[in-house]
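Dear colleagues,

For the upcoming journal club I promised to circulate an example of a predicted protein-ligand complex. I picked one with magnesium ion because it came up in last month's discussion. The inputs are reproduced below in full, followed by the predicted structure.
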Amino acid sequence: MKILKFGGTSVGSPERMKKLLDVIRPNLSGSNDEKQIVVLSAVAGTTNSLVEISQAYLNGDKRKAGELTKELHDKYKIFVRELFATEQGLTNGKELIDYHFTLISSFANELFTPIEEKSILAQGELMSTALYHFYLTEIGVRSVLLPALDFMKIDEDNEPVVEYIGEHLTRILNKYPDQALFITQGYICRNSFGEIDNLRRGGSDYTASLIGAAIRAEEVQIWTDISGMHNNDPRIVSGTKPVSVLSFEEAAELAYFGAKILHPQSVLPAQKYRIPVRLLNTMEPDAHGTLIAGESEKGKIKSIAAKDGIIAIKIQSSRMLLAYGFLRRVFEVFERYKTPIDMITTSEVAVSLTIDDTTYLQEIIKELNDFGSVEVDENQTIICVVGDFSFDKHGYSSRVFEALKHIPIRMISFGGSNYNISLLVNTSDKTEALRSLHNRLF
Ligand code: ADP
Ligand code: ASP
Ligand code: MG
């Protein structure tokens, strides 16, 4: 079984949606090794619109929510008209979108909480997959629509439950021994209360990797609008190039530290079961893209990524610091507020660390004040350089510092693993840092 995930732009227009078959090339005999599960995102722009609609509801602005809903519904009416060619197809498509937009509009009559918000956010993937399934039916290609809400599950800590997913998905797949093509929704899932929830923005990549891990698929393919992971952020730096091979560890670091092509957690499930992941381009299906598999190559710097929205917290204490038990007490504060720490550095009198989740920032600072003086710097960016940084290699780190000699660096993290060096800079210096590193390293 292969898992093929298509992102928002890859299903962004009726024309694009029709072109997916060039990539899927369905094998209709249903033989076991050629089976495919196709994971679809919402049509490009849809989730953003649904976020805006939810925001309007949360603000009590029903008029604005109504206007935005109508605008999106109108776009889908055109989409349906262009996707289907037969009377039956057009009727199926129209009834489908009318159902979903009536549902979105109906939230005007309810108390609107984050639970309703998550239901609204799920509508994009529910529509794209059902539309694609109707389209395949219209042109005579057999497929089965698998409702992700029947098997994708997260626990009370919002962590996916891979065993549950594997068990439930396998049971569903076993009902269709003669089918080769399955379609399901990315991004959406159920939480521990059984409510509709999601895997956070960009989460369809995570769905694909989780499904791949859960059923021990042969391969996961992430089809997007660029030919693989580039060696720097192509939105910021010009002249970036695709990296042909990454180890799981390197890809995981890049995804976590801001390479938007992959959801931050999406490498981990595939990594755990060593399932190869390919990053491929729907617009250029024959391009090699990036293969994520195996161990990292020696002697190469692979890529640079940046993650914004970072807060640095410094705790300074005369009483402390490297006394045993101190760091544990500091970490416990973050644990109590379920706030992950990204970077950490220590000295005899102070410890600096970074977080990106500010939900409990005030509470955390208040508790940290018991340990000493606390300083907080906002608007920070982590720059992460990934490649062979094993400690017996000389020279790479000095090239990194040389490239950044004109930029103030707030923190450095090196030695945590053999394949990355992370630096914290002011967000206003990010662009210059990425460009300068690019010129020096590649
Ligand atoms: P999809 O909708 O298919 O999930 P995304 O927009 O989430 O696509 O991810 C693809 C985009 O990621 C690219 O268009 C590119 O602008 C951006 N991107 C950021 N960093 C990188 C990188 N290092 N390599 C490739 N693409 C990157
Ligand atoms: N549609 C969701 C989003 O826009 C999930 C995804 O595209 O991966 O965030
Ligand atoms: Mg994405």
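Two points we might discuss: The CA atoms of residues 343 and 354 lie 5 Å apart. The two ends are 37 Å apart (CA to CA).

See you all on Thursday,
B. R.
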